Amino acid sequence: MATKFSQTQIDTAAGKHQDFINTLEDTHLRALRTEIANTLASSGSKVTTALDQVCEEWITQMKQGVITNMNGMIKAIRSAAADQTEMDLTSARDITNLSMSSSSFLGG
Known about the structure:
Layout: H1 7-42, H2 46-96, H3 102-105
């Protein structure tokens, strides 16, 4: 019996991860950058300006980390499905190649 999974489900799960990557900047980081810009606009402090640079570096590193992890998840989703399919095919082939008849296996 084959493992029950749908290629559509796999593609949907992987696609959601890819969609997140594609919208990371616009959807998830725009609000943070807007808040930082508003803070800079309301404060002339050198500390605030220095904090802006630190935040931008952190955002860049965090974004790269998220993208790397999401790509890893996409690869793992697809790889696990492919590995399971291969295991199912190998198991089916091994069972088919057994030398005993099905009647003797079933006690007949």
